[in-house]
Amino acid sequence: MLGPRPTPVQPAYRTGSTYTGVDESVVGCKPGIVKTVVKVDEGVYKTREVKLTLRYGGYDPDTYDGADGLVLSLTLPAKWLDGGVPIRRLRDAFIGHYRKKRPSARLAAAADEEWGLAIKDESMLLFSKKRLDDDADLTKALYDRQEVYAMTAWDWEDHEAKLAELRKAVVDDLAHTMRHVIHEPESIAPVVSRAQILPGATFVVLAGWYKQQCVLVTPEHTIADLKAYLHHKNGPRMPMEALDIGLRTADDSIEVLDGALTLQQVYEQSIAAAATLAKRLAASSGAALPDAPDLPADSPLAAVAAAAAPPVAVPLNELTAATDGFAEARKVGEG
């Protein structure tokens, strides 16, 4: 008889129906344009240029395929850098340029009041933006080399509809993950010394982004537990709602794993995938399957065919206890 289900670990960070994580690369760019005068020669001084990129491409320029998109690289006039210039002046400059380049576009016929400018917000969703107040001081609202987006009422409608759709997906997935975080993050330990590489222990090698790490786990840990561990160790750089853990498949793609899976279940899936790959290799090489009686025992094809036989799934701790090949694991631990 099964015992009571462990109580899920509660998240220690902000969540909610409109929370989609924090993009640190955006948060780290603080608004503020400062006029800087540099010396280029004896008695010769020059105001350092400040450039902005203005774009129109619907609510998401990166995926926009319309013919009326436009990108404009603009160097701000030196006198604008003294402050007091409203965002409206930047908007009007882009409107004038856009109407010359795209005179037949729907946007070109729109009234000036229907235009607005926006910048990337802190959300992990790449297209998510926030409006700029037309009366805001340009030097206080923006920073040098920033991307600024032109938006209209219909673009904001599409933007909000897509946000609502993805926010629901993010929040639903986060709730599903948190329901299956059943071990404290501290129950997973990084391998930092050779002394931790012992027979009977269970390890997971996590590879991705900018580093690889080996951690001590148990077969009962879940994928959600691994996500919680990564978030616990890395904080807002790895928010739970932005983390996926996958398994490389036989066709060299990545299969994203359900947070509810235990590591024992993932192990069983991985050896099943290895068996499938071996069968494909045997078939493509013309090798007979394991029941073929006419292959010499020392034949390479016989080895491929034997590998294609479905393996017996055993608990991870039994597998590691019976394995004496810890040299590679030691290398990971020492690295």
Descriptive report:
The chain folds into 2 domains: 24-176, Phosphatidylinositol 3-kinase Catalytic Subunit, Chain A, domain 1 (Ubiquitin-like (UB roll)), CATH 3.10.20.90; 185-334, Phosphatidylinositol 3-kinase Catalytic Subunit, Chain A, domain 1 (Ubiquitin-like (UB roll)). The protein has a 5-stranded mixed beta sheet with strand order 4-3-7-5-6. It has a 3-stranded antiparallel beta sheet with strand order 8-10-9. Helix 6 runs antiparallel to helix 7 (300-307). It has 9 helices and 12 strands. The protein is elongated. Strand 9 (202-208) and strand 10 form a beta hairpin. With 335 residues, the protein is an alpha+beta fold. The chain is 32% helix and 17% strand.
Give the amount of beta strand, in percent: 15-25%
| Total number of domains | 2
CATH architecture of the largest domain: Roll
CATH topology of the largest domain: Ubiquitin-like (UB roll)
The number of helical runs is: 9
Tell me the CATH superfamily of the largest domain.
Phosphatidylinositol 3-kinase Catalytic Subunit, Chain A, domain 1
Largest sheet: 5 strands, mixed
Q: How do the strands line up in the largest sheet?
A: 4-3-7-5-6
How far apart lie the N and C ends? 43 Å
Mean pLDDT over all positions: 79
The CATH class label of the largest domain is Alpha Beta
The low-confidence runs, each spanning 5 or more residues with pLDDT under 50, are 11-17, 299-335
Radius of gyration: 28 Å
Shape: elongated
Backbone structural class:
alpha+beta
What is the H/E order? Answer: HEEEEHEEHEHEEEHEEHHHH
Q: How many strand units? A: 12
**Residues in helices, as a percent range:** 25-40%
